[in-house]
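Page header: ASSEMBLY MODEL / two components / 395 residues total.
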Amino acid sequence: MKIYTHFSTEHLANVYVVSDDKGNGLIIDPSYIDKELLEIIESGGIDLKAVLITHAHESHTAGLGTLKKIYSFDIYASASSIEGFPARTLSDGEKIWIGELEVEALFIPGHSIDSLVYRIGSAIFTGDTLSSGTIASTKSYVAKSLLLKNIREKLMILPDSTIVYPGHGPISNIRVERMFNVDLLEDSGRF
Amino acid sequence: MFPFIRCQEPGCQSFASGSSSFCYHHSPQDVRERIDKEIREKLAAGTSITDTAMVNAEIRGITAGKGLRLSGCTFSFSIFEDCVFSSSSIVSCFFDYCFFHNCIFSDMDIRYSVFAGSSFVFSRISDSTVIHNNFMGIDSIDSDFSGNDFYFSNFSLSRLIDTGMEDANLKRTNFRGCTTRGVSFRYSNPEEAFFRKDDEGAAR
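Prediction written out in full:
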């Protein structure tokens, strides 16, 4: 499996291109599409099969229209329509295969009602749900409490070395987040 | 990225090294020596090292060749002593919980890498692009991080003591919960960094 990280300067968001050994690929959260991202796809010989959306906020979906003009692929998300394009909906714990990549969807609402985290092997793509050192912003205490509960029950149980690929900011791993995530430590009264 | 194949040693969560079924630490002595030799030769020659897992290693006295490119590697829990890296790039690599003593990184391009939980003692990262890196919970003592572009890097919960952070770009750099003593931000832009949760919210 290969994972390419691309920084979208338009929305300050990370876009991930993941491919298996045969070149079957997927994109997670296509923010603004630029030449550099297209070069990753083309020079890597990647056959784009799917686009996975962590949640339907513009900074994670804005490039979908541009991509649709160039490639033919399926869209997977929690919602049935993204940027006007029909999407295949995924529910909590559902697994799909993209080429040789097994993708598991984990439903973690809080930041938005449709937030999914995708697990592929020992990597999780968290969107805004979990970033290095922080958790997503929420609109209410109830939403924050729901988010924290789900992060603890579905992400913090993963092996320490599971790599965290967030929608914004640097990458991390579960061990580091358990030890140094200020929001999680604050919630448990350890900061 | 290094292969996501876990070490066969019961209870070990590290990733297997190269063709071995075990991580570097749990590999038989001869395999460890082979991997060690290969890595040292590649580092010294400045050739690319990709998708390599070398956890719990001890690398001492290496001067890496210029033009070295490290990508998708993990050197978690390793010790680096008296090492020099210059004019090279490090992308998507893991150096978490490492110990850097008397190491120099200069004129580097370091992106999307993790140094969280590491200790930097008498070490220097300078005149480099160090964007989108995870330095959470590091201990930096008598070290220097001056002249770097730290855009979007995260130092939260770190302990920075007698550490230079001068002439550095700190836009969107996160210092939340950091303990600092004898840290100089001269000629840097700490006003664009985050020191509290509120700062982060205001910038969003």
